[in-house]
Amino acid sequence: MDNKKQEQLEQFKVDDSDKVLTTNHGLPLSEDEFSLKAGERGPTLMEDFHFREKITHFDHERIPERVVHARGTGVHGEFTLYESMANYTKAGFLQDPNVKTPVFVRFSTVAGFRGSADTVRDVRGFAVKFYTQEGNYDLVSNNMPVFFIQDAIKFPDFIHAHKPEPDTEVPQASSAHDTFWDFIVNNQESAHMVMWVMSDRALPRSFRMMEGFGVHTFRWINKEGKATFVKFHWKPVLGVHSLVWDETQKIAGKDPDFNRKDIQSAIDCGDYPEFELGVQLLPEEDEFKFDFDVLDPTKIWPEEDIPVKIIGKMTLNKNVDNFFAEVEQVAFHPGNVVPGIDFTNDPLLQGRLFSYTDTQLIRLGGPNFHEIPINRPVVPFHNNQRDGYHRMTINTSKVSYHANSMANNTPKTIPESEGGYAHYQETVHGSKIRERSDSFKDHFSQAAMFYNSMSEVEKQHIIEAFKFELAKVKCMDIRQQVVDMFGSINTDMMTQVAQFIGVNPPKTQQSVYEKVSPALSQENTVKKADTLKIGIIVSNGFDVNEYENIVTALTTAKAKPEIIAQSLSPVQDSNGNNHIPIYTLLSTDPVLHDGIIVLLGDQGCDTFQADVKRYINETFIHYKPLAVSNSASSLLNPKMKGQTGVTIIDNTNVQKMIDDISMHRHWKREVAL
């Protein structure tokens, strides 16, 4: 670079250290942690010019890629109600079980760019657009029920800290770096969410096998005007299952589109993903009956205290026709509601109600993004809005204002009793103030409950995740602060981490919060073989009777047998019949299958067997089901024999093999080979 160009660049460099925090117009700020609210627990006020400047600048930072949730995929489907919810809400699509409501769902990772891998450790987006007869309703969820922050004014700060560091633009799609953990230790409200992100929930096996949560507390209002607090849950019919960390890293290299392709291929095969919709319902009069604030987005409502009522099912049954037109241009917004659904004073939700529209204005080129086909409602829309970028509607009336007499005052409003939307009339009082309610200030109790609720294997995975993440942090002081902070949750957990990363054991006292919520552990999820991909490695001369028994058993259990061979040339069985492989040992990998079965004939060469041994070893160390024929049993390491989830197949134990596959993982296995 020449000197003149260097001088031009130097004038734009800014050192923000030791400076007073100001707005973009130079106004010194006394507070940057809390948005302006009507009372400690009241709604965020529109006059908060600092919040608007900060969130607007953040929303417009990148085009055209989404700032967050950039990498994702989308599918179509339908939602069917099990029973009427008329006692709680007047929302039309929640009244009649005979009505099917079209939906579009976008699954995504949060932190990475569009080119990042699917299997990174991250939160997953789970956004659902219902095309109802009262307009579009968006339930914008994540696969974790809490979030890192309590107030939307801090969202730009969190994402800046989470994204690649600005001096080097690394690491990609990863929280294992200094700025992320520096944010965490200086914003301890994030403790609960970090426990989720360090858990197996951050490594879903499939979009089809993860939960979705609305995160926020919303309101349902029935025809009588009675309000009920509500939280939303999507429960996968296949259960909640995860990858292991070593697998995720290998899959990122072998097939970075692993989760995208998984859901697309399932739909192509007719294995339509299904999710049941559950709700937690809380009468308004019970708002203050708990040891946490029900409006705090860093807290869950434990299912054992407030049960989840299953009210319907969503079936995803159609892939998109054009990825850009549908997945990239779909615009979600938690403010897209229908009569009978309203908001609460959750300060994170309040900020999102502004931010999402603002983001779409820059991403999709102006105010008419609602006219893009994927975003259009299935019912007509009429209003006096006109013009703007990419306007599609051709309005023929002279009138573009309300009220009017030239067009008989149309389009006109209708009263709430006839279906017009009216906000819930909540009484609001309080001084204009930038503060946080004291009821939001317990950051560790539910984080401790989450850890207490994990199985021993899940706890160990959390510890290993902390070790990996913090070993990537260069600043020793940040490492120590993290250990001290999370020592408040569990001292033993962070003592093990401290020993690994070379800092002192935690100074803080462990939380005495001993509550357990069994619903939080994936060990208690549904376990079955449905749609699991089982690789069957064969070589010429393999026993056809054995093969047919296994394939029949797998198919009956709704698992997916996939033939793997040395090449894509036909493989002959013991009767001389040809079988066409789907994969070769080179074109696939054990991490891309949910289990491996080895059926070798009498014509396998040494090189082939060496490759098969790699498949066997990787399957074993990742705790997956493993089965071999007698002819292949010599390829097993002697330490594998007799261990859980390992089968040497004969005619009497094929069902045991199916039972092993249904378990997904066999954590009691000794993996030291």
From TrEMBL:
The organism encoding this protein is Alkalibaculum bacchi
- Which residues of this protein are catalytic? 69, 142
CDD domains per UniProt: GATase1_catalase
**Which function does this protein serve?**
Decomposes hydrogen peroxide into water and oxygen; serves to protect cells from the toxic effects of hydrogen peroxide.
Keyword Heme on entry: yes
- Which of this chain's residues are annotated to bind heme? 66, 106, 155, 352, 356, 363
Name of the molecule in the record: Catalase
The record lists the catalysed reaction(s) as: 2 H2O2 = O2 + 2 H2O
Q: Which cofactor does it need?
A: heme
Family assignment from sequence similarity: Belongs to the catalase family. HPII subfamily.
Sorted alphabetically, the Gene Ontology cellular component annotations on this record are: cytosol
The biological processes this protein is annotated with in GO are: hydrogen peroxide catabolic process; response to oxidative stress
- Pfam family membership, one: Catalase
The record's annotation in PANTHER family points to:
CATALASE, CATALASE-B
The record ties this protein, via InterPro entries, to: Catalase, Catalase_AS, Catalase_clade2, Catalase_clade2_helical, Catalase_core, Catalase_haem_BS, Catalase_immune_responsive, Catalase_large_C
Q: Which UniProt keywords apply?
A: Heme, Hydrogen peroxide, Iron, Metal-binding, Oxidoreductase, Peroxidase
* All residue ranges annotated as the Catalase core domain in the record: 22-410
Which domain of life does this protein belong to? Bacteria
**Covalent link location (3'-histidyl-3-tyrosine (His-Tyr)):** 333-356
One MF annotation (Gene Ontology) recorded for this entry:
metal ion binding
